[in-house]
Amino acid sequence: MADVKYKRILLKLSGEALSGERGYGIDPETVNNIAAEIKEVYELGVEIAIVVGGGNLWRGEAGAKLGMERAQADYVGMLGTTMNALALQDALESHDVPTRVQTAIEMRQVAEPYVRRKAVRHLEKGRVVIFGAGTGSPYFSTDTTAALRAAEINAEAILMAKNGVDGVYSDDPRKNPDATMFEKLTHKDIIAKGLKVMDSTASTLSMDNDINLVIFNMNTSGNIKRVVLGENIGTTVEVD
Ligand code: UDP
């Protein structure tokens, strides 16, 4: 095995990462590029679990604002994350990376149901595991799913791949030119400084379970591999 910083990772991809230039929906070419990057990491011998979001298709909160019942709108969102999971599985398999999709809401014809021990076994056997349908419960996010699954499978870090953002900044870098990026933070810093890294449920779950995070820009190709190899990119949130 190559000299890597993390042997088991949980990669969190936002739904938007799959939509490419279009900004919505699933762009197969973009998904294919992401799969190629994941393959590079896979070839290092790293165990990879992935939580994929659904914001490129639907967000429950937005649906609720338009008059839908919130829980129902969230179920639509969870099904969206599963569509993304299946698209990613397709791209990874076209790169000869063995994968399994496990969903928190059963849909046996297209994916396995989520079973923690099975997920760990797949990882040990060298399969990339993609978790679909979030936590299976409304009112949660896929960031919270990432924190939960990372804790369950004992991932050494959550790699939070961001679209066009290099890491965690003191302020919104698109609005404030004086905003500076943090290289290292602790979970307590995030709360004390009021930084927005994840939603608060995901943030406290990560803190309470001592989960390391790396927030980095997905738009620079090769970045997932750089993080795994321990290069100093993005912002690392470590346990103090
Ligand atoms: N969702 C949910 N429970 C979960 C995870 C996700 O209800 O455990 C729903 C929620 O409606 C959310 C949508 O799925 O808006 C898509 O997930 P998210 O917004 O986290 O996607 P991302 O922003 O990462 O693309």
UniProtKB/TrEMBL annotation:
<keyword id="KW-0547">Nucleotide-binding</keyword>
<dbReference type="InterPro" id="IPR001048">
    <property type="entry name" value="Asp/Glu/Uridylate_kinase"/>
</dbReference>
<comment type="pathway">
    <text>Pyrimidine metabolism; CTP biosynthesis via de novo pathway; UDP from UMP (UMPK route): step 1/1.</text>
</comment>
<dbReference type="InterPro" id="IPR015963">
    <property type="entry name" value="Uridylate_kinase_bac"/>
</dbReference>
<feature type="binding site">
    <location>
        <position position="55"/>
    </location>
    <ligand>
        <name>ATP</name>
    </ligand>
</feature>
<feature type="domain" description="Aspartate/glutamate/uridylate kinase">
    <location>
        <begin position="7"/>
        <end position="217"/>
    </location>
</feature>
<feature type="region of interest" description="Involved in allosteric activation by GTP">
    <location>
        <begin position="20"/>
        <end position="25"/>
    </location>
</feature>
<feature type="binding site">
    <location>
        <position position="54"/>
    </location>
    <ligand>
        <name>UMP</name>
    </ligand>
</feature>
<dbReference type="Pfam" id="PF00696">
    <property type="entry name" value="AA_kinase"/>
</dbReference>
<keyword id="KW-0067">ATP-binding</keyword>
<keyword id="KW-0963">Cytoplasm</keyword>
<keyword id="KW-0808">Transferase</keyword>
<feature type="binding site">
    <location>
        <position position="59"/>
    </location>
    <ligand>
        <name>ATP</name>
    </ligand>
</feature>
<feature type="binding site">
    <location>
        <begin position="12"/>
        <end position="15"/>
    </location>
    <ligand>
        <name>ATP</name>
    </ligand>
</feature>
<keyword id="KW-0665">Pyrimidine biosynthesis</keyword>
<feature type="binding site">
    <location>
        <position position="169"/>
    </location>
    <ligand>
        <name>ATP</name>
    </ligand>
</feature>
<feature type="binding site">
    <location>
        <position position="163"/>
    </location>
    <ligand>
        <name>ATP</name>
    </ligand>
</feature>
<comment type="similarity">
    <text>Belongs to the UMP kinase family.</text>
</comment>
<protein>
    <recommendedName>
        <fullName>Uridylate kinase</fullName>
        <ecNumber>2.7.4.22</ecNumber>
    </recommendedName>
</protein>
<dbReference type="GO" id="GO:0044210">
    <property type="term" value="P:'de novo' CTP biosynthetic process"/>
</dbReference>
<dbReference type="GO" id="GO:0005737">
    <property type="term" value="C:cytoplasm"/>
</dbReference>
<comment type="function">
    <text>Catalyzes the reversible phosphorylation of UMP to UDP.</text>
</comment>
<feature type="binding site">
    <location>
        <begin position="135"/>
        <end position="142"/>
    </location>
    <ligand>
        <name>UMP</name>
    </ligand>
</feature>
<keyword id="KW-0418">Kinase</keyword>
<dbReference type="InterPro" id="IPR036393">
    <property type="entry name" value="AceGlu_kinase-like_sf"/>
</dbReference>
<keyword id="KW-0021">Allosteric enzyme</keyword>
<feature type="binding site">
    <location>
        <position position="74"/>
    </location>
    <ligand>
        <name>UMP</name>
    </ligand>
</feature>
<comment type="subunit">
    <text>Homohexamer.</text>
</comment>
<feature type="binding site">
    <location>
        <position position="172"/>
    </location>
    <ligand>
        <name>ATP</name>
    </ligand>
</feature>
<dbReference type="GO" id="GO:0006225">
    <property type="term" value="P:UDP biosynthetic process"/>
</dbReference>
<dbReference type="GO" id="GO:0005524">
    <property type="term" value="F:ATP binding"/>
</dbReference>
<dbReference type="InterPro" id="IPR011817">
    <property type="entry name" value="Uridylate_kinase"/>
</dbReference>
<dbReference type="GO" id="GO:0033862">
    <property type="term" value="F:UMP kinase activity"/>
</dbReference>
